[in-house]
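Title: [Solved] Deoxyribodipyrimidine photo-lyase 3D structure

Original question kept below for reference.
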Amino acid sequence: MSVNAPTLLWFRLDLRLDDNPAMQAAIARGKPIIPVFIYDEDKDWPLGGATRWWLHHALADLQEQLSCHGLKLVLQSGDSAEVISDLVEKHEIGAVFWNRCYEPRTIARDSAIKQQLKSQTIEVESFNTSLLFEPWEIKNKTGNPFRVFTPFWKHCLAKSFPKTINCDLGATKVPRAWPDSEILDDWKLLPRISWDAEFYKFWKPTRKAGLNRLRQFVKDAVHDYGNGRDRPDWDGTSCLSPYLHFGQIGPREIYEALLGKVDLTKGGPRQYLSEIGWREFSYHILYHFPSVPTEPLRPEFEHFPWEPDDQLLKAWQKGQTGYPLVDAGMRQLYAIGWMHNRVRMNAGSILVKHLLQPWQDGARWFWDTLVDADLASNTQGWQWTAGCGADGAPYFRVFNPVLQGQRFDTEGDYVRRWVPELAKLPSQYIHQPWEAPDSVLAAADVKLCKTYPLPVVEHQQGRRRALDAYEKLKFFHKDKK
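Solution (posted by the thread starter after getting help):
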């Protein structure tokens, strides 16, 4: 092997150069660096349309980041093990470094690749850049994984948080020859039809834009985050989730951006930091219970009496449930690949409780339509909503979408933005247009059942339906004991 045997730097969900331990290890090795990204989709969870859109732009941005240091991003598609083996052989690679991912299939694949490289006496090492703490580091007093968030996060807060890594990017070395690279546009990650027009108005999927958003959030919105996180009509959340998912920003960077500028022990900053903790908890659960993307963590929910109905599911997907707050959220989701968390909870509750549709169907739709579709967070959110996961909301807690809209979208601005056919309704009726007098509906150009649907199920009826289903589950579980 050549004394200048290059380092293969394998990018995955870590599409940044700074605060990147695999990058720093490659630099410290002192050999030429060959960065590579392999498009190798998980067969069980292939990328949805929205995440493919973000990935395209994030990779283009990473190419620009690398070019500033004389490096190129080698793009390859196919089986990761085969691509790496081929690159190692053809380019006399001396070391392979990457940052860890925690999806079940990825863990198994990476372990096999690592063992194969070691058997070839290739230096190989993986690092943590996407979490504050490794899932196996956090254990309860009995040495088992946590299943409730509050004690989990309390345990984390008692530990020393890791610091960001300043990579010596000026010390990168360039190889004499570059491997062949595929062309990003040839991967056809962008949609063939222009459903993504609003994406470009709302998002800039670059590291620079993510850092700017973080700075602005810490300066302004984080202080009132306790209220802002519940108000879809405000710009009160960080909107950093897609940047976090693709590793354009890391959780250590978020923590350090907050540290020293705000009091992390109280108010909005404390609540926001706990959201980072919830993300950590989601990965903790996924790592220790790898079946949760498709199976409930609480086994008794395997027998829940769901009533799958394609028409109800489609009405929900298209924002045609007849509940303005929910429909606004579902349309926002389709338009920009993101939905405010307060509305996500209401949209999820409608699907699994009022409509008795399996939570897995909701998770799959979100997976396809969210730019921040993250297997751990998406799974955790849906199992929480369905009451079947770790620290889940009780199943008998059923959101009233009318009251939720009146409380958190007081003037109806959020609904007017995303359900324009209701825009002319007075605020007192915008969350329950079926209660408006005919004269008010006529003045607002609203024709119920024509321009806007009636609720697919009346709230009290839907609530009763959900509670009856829960009682059936309890009786079934009791009989099995």
